[in-house]
Amino acid sequence: METVVPNLAREIEKFSYRNGLRMAETLTALLDYIIGFADPDGKPVEGWKYNQEQNEGFYSLMRCYFLTMQEKLKGDRWHDAFGDLFLEFGANKSGLGQVFTPKHICDLMAECSIGEIDEEPKFCCRGFGKRITVNDPTCGSGRMLLAADSVFRKRELPKPYLIGEDIDPTCCKQTAVNMMMHGCFGEVICHDTLTEPGEVRVGYIVNEGLYPFPAVPTIRRFSDPGRFVGCRVWNYRKTIKETEPTGTTERLPQPVQLSLF
Question: How far apart are the first and last CA of the chain?
C-alpha cells in the first residue's frame, strides 16, 4: 500500500481484514479509542461495540501510531498521520468532499497569517490563562493549526490557544488527537460554523494536563458551549452587536484567522 505512513496503514488494513471492518470504520474507532485513553475523567466512549480481543488490537494500533509519530517528528516540526490516512481510507465516503491542504501550503499560510506578534494576549482561556488565539473555522484534520503552533515555537513566542471548528465529527477527532500529540493547547468544536457558531454538538479541550507544568497530555469531552472560548466569543460579539451601536464589535480582540470561507 502506497502511503506516507506505511507501517500504520498496513496494521490498520490487517486489523480491518481480520475483524471484517471497513478501514474507515477502524480509523474512526481508533480515534475514539485514543480520545478515551487520553480522557482523565474516564468517560466511556459512546456507542463502543468492540470486544476484549478487538480492544487489545486497538491498543496495539494506538502504540503503532505513537511510535509512528515519534519517528516522524524527529525530522518534521509537525506531521498529520491521521489526515493522510483519512484521505486514503475514508474521505471520499463522507459526502463532504474533503481535500486537506498540503503541508507546505499550511506552513506558508501560517507564516503569512500570523505576521508579527507584538501585543499582549487579550483572551482569557479557561485553564490556560491569557493567550493569543488562533482559529480555523473549517479545520479538517487540524493541519493549519499545527502549522500555526509550529510558527510560534520557531519564533520562541508563548504558545497560542488553538481553536478548531468543523462540521465533520471524524475531522474534529483527528484535530483533537493531532493537537494532543503535538503538545498544543486549545479546543476543537464540532458544529456548523455558519449556522450554529454558538452551539456545540461535541467538543474537546486539549492538553489541560500540560499547563502550567508539563505533565500528562489530555483530551476532555464536553457539550456545554460555556466551556469553549470560540462559542463564548461568538455569543459575546452577538450580544454586543444587538445592544450597542454599529462598530462596537470591531473593538473586540480578533483571533488570528487561518481559513477562508
Answer: 34
* Spatial distance between the Cα atoms of 133 and 125, rounded to a whole number of angstroms: 9
Beta strands (DSSP E) in the chain are 123-125, 129-131, 133-136, 161-166, 185-190, 202-206, 219-222, 256-257
Three-class DSSP labels, 69-92: HHHHCCCCCCCCHHHHHHHHHCHH
Q: How far apart are CA 217 and CA 40, in angstroms?
A: 9
* Cβ–Cβ < 8 Å for 166, 173: no
CA angle 102, 73, 61 (to 5 degrees): 90
Residue bearing cell 477562508: 260
Cα–Cα distance measured from residue 187 to residue 135, given in angstroms and rounded to the nearest whole number: 10
Q: What percent of the chain has pLDDT over 90?
A: 52
**32-53 pLDDT tens trace:** 999 999 999 888 888 899 999 9
